[in-house]
């Protein structure tokens, strides 16, 4: 029987891609793997462990937090705080970034941004959710506390990014700038194994993912693009199929494997869209580009946007290159 490579082996094997690396990034990816396992275990038994429902408080964006948003955040923060690979962390569920200034963190090279639980509206109804992470090398001097500047870096500075998808199976997908690979969790063994190597968007896609309930609020260009995808044109395989789960990770994963486009545009009610640039758009954009796809805000490359605030939002269009460029044409 063919033996699959474990995530741990793959991380070590690929450490050579980073001639300057001293193993910190590998150790950090392993910490994220560990936290992911713990969150996965909690999600699998959520209905029994009284961790469904609301936490009774709001995050900095005024969204009412789900108990699992809070728990997943605590698991990632405590796992990464207990291991010395990062000097700071920012999260969707925390108003401000955390500075890890204990001795073992002071000289750490990296910072992490996370969306601990993506697709929160789906938790209580057992639909696929995820965790998204983005890793940067610090800008501030080693030995000093992490600064806001360390977090407000453009997406092109990411050294690694990825997500965990908690679906029919649990898969960890990530890139370090050398392609995108996916590892499926085998609960029987308790390890992640390489199951999707060097993932690339298929040449063509015919699935579009957008919350059409917001159609009336969309800019004209997006309205026209949606009309275009729904028109009959057998040659161009239109109308496209509509698939929207309410979880960015799930829609992105499907579109990357089968071809498609995800759109969360700006609108009258959300002038800058809904998704957060630093821990949703940038990591997915890095993965998309590494898989041969594209990610824009309708006209500009997401990864070239200069962030101004920790929780700022950005219009997000991401998927097959050709499909994103068509949407951009309509936006022009
Ligand atoms: O319900 P809406 O407005 O369509 O938004 C759904 C989108 O918002 C998100 O749930 C935002 O992420 P969080 O759940 O992490 O807040 C995305 O996963 C999803 O694609
Ligand atoms: Mg999210
Ligand atoms: Mg979230």
Describe the protein's architecture and organization.
A hairpin with a 5-residue loop joins strand 1 (54-58) and strand 2 (64-66). The strands form 3 sheets. Strands 4-3-5-6-7-8-9-10 form an 8-stranded mixed beta sheet, with helices on both faces. Strands 12-11-13-15-14 form a 5-stranded mixed beta sheet, sandwiched between helices. The N and C termini lie far apart (53 Å). The model has no long low-confidence stretch (mean pLDDT 94). It has 2 domains: 7-198, Fructose-1,6-Bisphosphatase, Chain A, domain 1; 207-331, D-Maltodextrin-Binding Protein, domain 2. It has helices spanning 7-13, 24-44, 67-81, 103-106, 148-151, 220-230, 248-258, 277-290, 321-331, and strands at residues 54-58, 64-66, 86-91, 98-99, 110-118, 129-137, 158-166, 170-175, 180-186, 191-196, 207-209, 241-242, 261-264, 293-296, 316-320. The chain contains 9 helices and 15 strands. The chain is α+β, with helices and mostly antiparallel strands. 47% of the residues are buried. It binds 1,6-di-O-phosphono-beta-D-fructofuranose (FBP) and magnesium ion (MG) (2 copies). 1,6-di-O-phosphono-beta-D-fructofuranose binds next to strand 5.
């Amino acid at each position: 029987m063919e033996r699959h490579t474990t995530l741990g082996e793959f991380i070590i094997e690929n450490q050579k891609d980073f001639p300057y690396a001293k193993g910190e990034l590998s150790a950090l990816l392993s910490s994220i793997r560990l936290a992911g396992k713990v969150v996965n275990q909690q999600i699998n038994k959520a209905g029994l462990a009284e961790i469904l429902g609301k936490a009774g408080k709001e995050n900095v964006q005024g969204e009412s937090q789900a108990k699992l948003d809070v728990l997943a955040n605590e698991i990632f923060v405590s796992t990464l705080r207990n291991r010395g690979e990062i000097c700071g962390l920012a999260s969707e569920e925390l108003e401000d970034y955390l500075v890890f200034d204990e001795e073992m963190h002071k000289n750490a090279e990296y910072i992490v941004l996370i969306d601990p639980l993506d697709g929160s509206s789906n938790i209580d109804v057992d639909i696929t959710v995820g965790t998204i992470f983005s890793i940067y090398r610090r800008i501030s001097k080693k030995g000093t506390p992490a600064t806001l500047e360390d977090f407000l870096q453009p997406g092109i500075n990411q050294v690694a990014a990825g997500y965990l998808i908690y679906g029919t199976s649990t898969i960890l997908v990530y890139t370090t700038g050398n392609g995108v690979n996916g590892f499926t969790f085998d609960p029987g063994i308790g390890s992640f194994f390489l199951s999707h190597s060097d993932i690339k968007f298929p040449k063509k896609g015919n699935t579009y993912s957008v919350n059409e309930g917001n159609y009336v609020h969309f800019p004209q260009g997006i309205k026209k693009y949606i009309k275009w995808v729904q028109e009959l044109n057998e040659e161009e395989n239109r109308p496209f199929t509509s698939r929207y789960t309410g979880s960015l990770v799930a829609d992105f994963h499907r579109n990357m494997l089968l071809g498609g486009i995800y759109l969360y545009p700006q609108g009258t009610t959300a002038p800058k869209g809904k998704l957060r640039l630093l821990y949703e758009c940038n990591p997915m954009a890095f993965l998309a580009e590494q898989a041969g796809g594209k990610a824009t805000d309708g006209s500009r490359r997401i990864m070239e946007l200069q962030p101004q605030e920790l929780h700022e939002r950005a219009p997000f269009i991401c998927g097959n290159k050709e499909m994103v460029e068509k949407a951009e044409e309509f936006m022009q």
